[in-house]
Design goal:
The structure holds two protein chains of two kinds. Chain A is mainly alpha-helical. Chain A is built from 14 helices and four strands. In chain A, helix 2 packs antiparallel against helix 7 and helix 7 packs parallel to helix 10. Chain A is elongated and about 90 Å long. In chain A, 38% of the residues are buried. Chain B is α/β, with parallel strands linked by helices. Chain B folds into four domains: 222 residues, Rossmann fold, CATH 3.40.50.300; 64 residues, 2-Layer Sandwich (Alpha-Beta Plaits), CATH 3.30.70; 172 residues, 3-Layer(aba) Sandwich (Rossmann fold); 71 residues, no CATH class. Helices cover 33% and strands 26% of the residues of chain B. Chain B has a six-stranded mixed beta sheet with strand order 6-7-8-3-9-10, sandwiched between helices. Chain B has a six-stranded mixed beta sheet with strand order 20-21-22-17-23-24, with helices on both faces. Chain B has a four-stranded antiparallel beta sheet with strand order 2-1-4-5. In chain B, a hairpin with a 2-residue loop joins strand 18 and strand 19. The longest helix of chain B has 18 residues. Chain B is globular. The chains are: A mainly alpha, B alpha/beta.
């Protein structure tokens, strides 16, 4: 690189950095937004079931029912509430004061001892299907473990249904935070890379600074690099902040190597910056650039990356579309790096996909970018 | 051949596609710019001035033709051009969140100015632009004129041999305008720079060594300004008549036979005739007593208007709101007293008082940022005043803004039209917004299309109209409900001289029919159309009076006829010396 090219590039980077430092909105997108998103997801959104309010209706109290409801009371997954009649319990369910009802009818003990396979009634609120499934599963689990213990204590054989012994790897406690927070990193970096970059280039068009800029001898690659480098640094900064918060605020384990995380993040950052630049070349107003960036980068990263919604349970056509979302590959990398460790087969395949996408985006940017107004 | 010219365009054509139509911005243009002088590029809006500049810097590619700047083929080596030519676009993009020094540093880096030679160049430029004391100030905090000078300094950082300036003086106050010209002259004299400058101010043409007149993408003429006005010799006159208002006299003379152009100049009417020879007052206006006509030397503007009027345009029918209001001269329609408007700790308007009578054209003059628009918005009830009293059409704006608003028409600076609606859809909308229905609405839309000669454009999207027509449409929209008071905010900004003349003819006719008109402008010569005016600077009123009174304050023995611009500069300078 000759001295004048270096001078031009340095000038661009200095200008861009000063603008970032002085513009509260880019700082906000890079550092405040990640913190807000993390706190929101960390404390607000939880896919775990703990202390589920459960109505317990015991029509004929005896030793058996006392033992069963005692088991529910001791469980950390439930907060049982007693209701004298099923009607009142149903009202509580309708008012969403409880998520489910355990209904022990007056012939419960007899039916249980007689070997009836369904002596108890369970009603769950299906309005929130996800919560309903979790509640149902936990009630089932609690019921079975009580049943086994009860049988053992009495030394009696009871017809215990086939027991499934679950073993959950990588996230034994099934903490939703542990897989949400790594996924969030992908979302946050998409925001910084694509949204911020697209907006700042569009701003130059809108304010007329672009015309004055491209009429100088600056080369097109210097202009692009001058935009890329500062936002790359900013994005990596946002990434580091998120990792630090994940590790030490939310106690998400990082089982893989930090440098691998850093390297793959850098690769993903380049992909999103490529998208941002591509949008900014097409859209010359901040409004259009912002809308486009949100629709084609941020929303897919949120919905189609597997960060919250499992890709495997999406309809087949949608699954195919997810292959076009760079965040999908990065979420896979992040989740294995944080929860499983350096699983090379996963990382290599996904990093390869990211590299390919980054190259495609930059080839398009290179092809489209012109130092001209038409 | 090309070696001796700073810039040559031969057979250059450039078209654009917009909304399914092809617009020819430049059509087989041949020009050659001589080195070491200021060449002016003059033409109405949409004549192709900006396109020509952008082609010359390689920002646009021509459809056909050859462009050479400083002997270099622009198409073949745009980067070489960009390092030896300075180009200041119409909206020079200063980075408002960077300081003056940081802006300079950026452009020095981009232009590859070696570090050792920078301090000297910076010092020269800062001294030349007077920005020395403000190097640490953010560019966004500079005044309009200072921003423009900083833009120029950034463009000049690498001492270009050819300087292209696209309307550098638009919206700049007269004092800064004069300073900008001094800088340009100095560059030509001391650094031997060649300058091509486009402008909408016709008086600036006379400051150029040579002028290129561009119209509808074609070069009409290239001459020295003196030679330009040569054919006008013996065709320019000043007329005065007792017992008739100057606006009235102008309207009469404008439609008189043999007259190409009639324009208010100071207290008299400037006439341009179709043929040489002093016109006979009796022939012009048989019923007018005491019409005196005397010869005056031609100016560039006369030639410009004469050339353009011969190529296009038609005489204009006078327009009114349709219903004449009784003119009662002494009614105070607008009164504002001690009005203030703060934004945080910044005073946009401070202690402004004036009153306007019915049927008056009242002007608010000042540079960008003087507080004109803020005053306007308060008068329209769009912005509450921080302190003071405002009364419009008898309603106190603090309590009855809505009632007052029903009786005023407002034409905003950027015309606020719906670009994606057609002309008639826009009119329909504004008529409905003002509560006009059925027959009445149809009648008003018909009236607007007719009076503003928009019939041929009724089905076109208003966004695709030429600026002059957008202005007509916005004007029509503001008049749909026959308001008794009309607020016009910078109605002529960026509009070419022909459209400006037409606009003032309509405005004058409205005033004659009893409508009260408040108008802001930064064109000093337009002050002459006003009955009375205030001159504003930095939120304060510097002077109030009729144009004659204001000018006569600065009349001296060796300068008997000061222009409004000279009066303005003297006022500003007087203020600065006392401050």
């Amino acid at each position: 690189m000759n001295p004048s090219a270096r001078m031009r590039l340095r000038g661009m980077i200095r200008k861009e950095s000063l603008q970032i430092l002085r513009d509260p909105s880019s700082i906000a997108i890079a550092f405040v937004l990640p913190v807000i998103l993390l706190l929101l997801f960390g404390y607000g959104v939880s896919l775990d079931a703990k202390h589920i309010p459960l109505a317990v209706v015991v029509e004929q109290p005896d030793a058996v029912t006392a033992s069963l409801s005692g088991a529910f009371e001791r469980s950390e997954y439930f907060t049982p509430r007693r209701y004298p009649s099923i009607q009142q319990a149903q009202q509580a369910l309708q008012a969403r004061r409880v998520d489910g009802i355990l209904w022990l009818r007056n012939d419960f003990s007899q039916r249980l001892l007689a070997g009836d396979r369904s002596p108890a009634g369970v009603i769950v609120n299906g309005v929130d299907a996800n919560q309903a499934r979790i509640t149902e599963g936990y009630i089932q689990g609690a019921w079975q473990s009580w049943l086994m213990r009860y049988a053992e204590e009495r030394g009696r054989k009871l017809p215990v249904p086939v027991a499934v012994e679950q073993r959950i790897w990588f996230n034994p406690a099934l903490r939703s935070l542990d897989f949400l927070v790594p996924g969030l990193i992908a979302v946050i970096m998409t925001l910084i890379g694509a949204l911020l970059t697209a907006m700042v280039v569009a701003r130059e068009w809108e304010r007329g600074t672009m015309e004055a800029l491209i009429v100088t001898p600056i080369r097109i690659h210097e202009l692009l690099l001058g935009k890329l480098i500062p936002y790359f640094v900013l994005g990596m900064g946002g990434m580091l902040l998120t990792v630090v918060m994940a590790r030490w605020l939310f106690d998400v384990p990082l089982r893989g190597s930090f440098w691998l995380l850093f390297g793959t993040s850098a690769l993903f950052m380049l992909t999103t910056l490529g998208m941002g630049l591509l949008i900014s070349i097409v859209a010359r107003s901040q409004f259009v650039a912002g809308q486009t960036a949100i629709i084609v980068t941020f929303l897919p990263a949120f919905i189609l990356s597997g960060f919250i919604f499992d890709i495997g349970s999406m309809p087949a056509p949608v699954q195919i579309i997810t292959h076009l979302v760079p965040a999908r590959y990065f979420v896979a990398i992040l989740q294995s790096l944080f929860l499983a460790g350096d699983v090379w087969p996963v990382i290599l395949v996904n990093a390869g996909a990211l590299l390919l996408m980054a190259m495609i985006f930059f080839a398009l940017v290179w092809h489209k970018a012109r130092k001209r107004l038409d | 051949m090309t070696g001796e010219h700073a810039l040559t365009l031969s057979g250059v054509t450039r078209t654009f596609r917009a909304g399914g139509r092809t617009i020819t911005a430049l059509k087989k243009v041949d020009v050659a710019i001589r080195p070491g002088q200021v060449t002016g590029l003059i033409g109405p809006d949409g004549a192709g001035k900006t396109t020509l500049m952008r082609l010359a810097t390689g920002l646009l590619l021509p459809d056909a033709g050859e462009i050479r700047a400083l002997g270099i083929d622009v198409l073949a080596a745009p980067l070489t051009i960009q390092s030896s030519v300075g180009y200041m676009p119409q909206r020079f993009g200063l980075y408002e969140d960077l300081s003056v020094q940081e802006n300079l540093d950026l452009y020095a880096d981009l232009q590859g100015v070696p570090k050792p030679s920078r301090p000297k160049r910076y010092a020269e430029l800062l001294q030349m632009t007077g920005l020395g004391p403000f190097t640490q100030r953010l560019a966004g905090r500079l005044s309009g004129g200072m921003k423009q000078k900083l833009g120029l300094a950034c463009t000049l950082i690498h001492s270009p041999r050819l300087l292209l300036l696209d309307e550098p003086t638009v919206g700049v106050d007269p004092v800064s305008r004069r300073e900008l010209w001094q800088i340009i002259y100095r560059l030509v004299r001391d650094e031997g720079m060649s300058v091509l400058l486009s402008t909408a101010y016709l008086d600036e043409a006379e400051r150029c060594s040579e002028v290129i007149l561009l119209h509808q993408g074609q070069v009409l003429n290239q001459e020295t300004p003196q030679r330009f006005s040569e054919p006008m010799r013996g065709r320019t006159f000043l007329a005065t008549a007792g017992g008739i208002g100057k606006r009235h006299l102008q309207a009469r003379l404008n439609s008189a036979p043999g007259i190409l152009d009639a324009l208010i100049e100071g207290s008299r009417i400037r006439l341009v005739t179709e043929h040489p020879g002093i016109p006979d007052p009796v022939e012009l206006a048989p019923d007018l007593q005491g019409l005196v006509i005397e010869a005056t030397p031609p100016r560039f503007e006369d030639a410009f208007i004469a050339t353009l009027k011969q190529t296009a345009s038609q005489p204009l029918a006078a327009s009114t709101t349709g219903s004449a209001l009784p003119a009662r001269e002494q009614d105070e329609v607008i009164r504002i007293q001690g009005v203030q408007r703060r934004f945080g700790d910044f005073y946009a308007v401070r202690d402004v008082s004036f009153s306007v009578h019915r049927g008056e054209i009242f002007g608010l003059l000042g540079a960008n940022g003087a507080g004109k628009s803020t005053t306007f918005r308060m008068l329209c009830g769009l912005l509450p005043a921080s302190a003071g009293e405002l009364t419009v059409a008898g309603h106190d704006l603090r309590h009855a803004a809505a009632q007052a608003r029903g009786r005023i028409g407002y034409m905003a600076q950027r015309f606020s039209l719906y670009a994606r609606l057609t002309v008639s859809q826009n009119l329909h909308f504004f008529a409905s917004a003002y509560g006009l229905r059925n027959r009445k609405r149809q009648a008003r839309i018909r009236w607007a299309l007719q009076t503003f000669e928009l019939e041929n454009y009724a089905g076109d999207n208003s966004g695709d109209l030429p600026l002059g027509f957008k202005q007509r449409l916005a004007f029509a929209a503001a008049l749909m409900h026959e308001p008794e008071i009309l607020f016009l905010d910078e109605p002529t900004s960026g509009v070419d001289p022909l459209a400006r003349r037409e606009f003032w003819q309509r405005t004058n006719a409205l005033a004659e029919s009893g409508v009260t008109i408040l108008v802001t402008t930064h064109f000093m010569d337009e002050a002459n159309y006003c009955d009375r005016l205030v001159i504003m600077a930095e939120g304060e009123v510097l002077a109030t009076g009729t144009p004659e009174e204001l000018r006569s304050r600065f009349r001296t023995a060796n300068h008997p006829e000061p222009t409004m611009e000279e009066a303005f500069i003297a006022l500003i300078e007087g203020r600065e010396s006392t401050a």
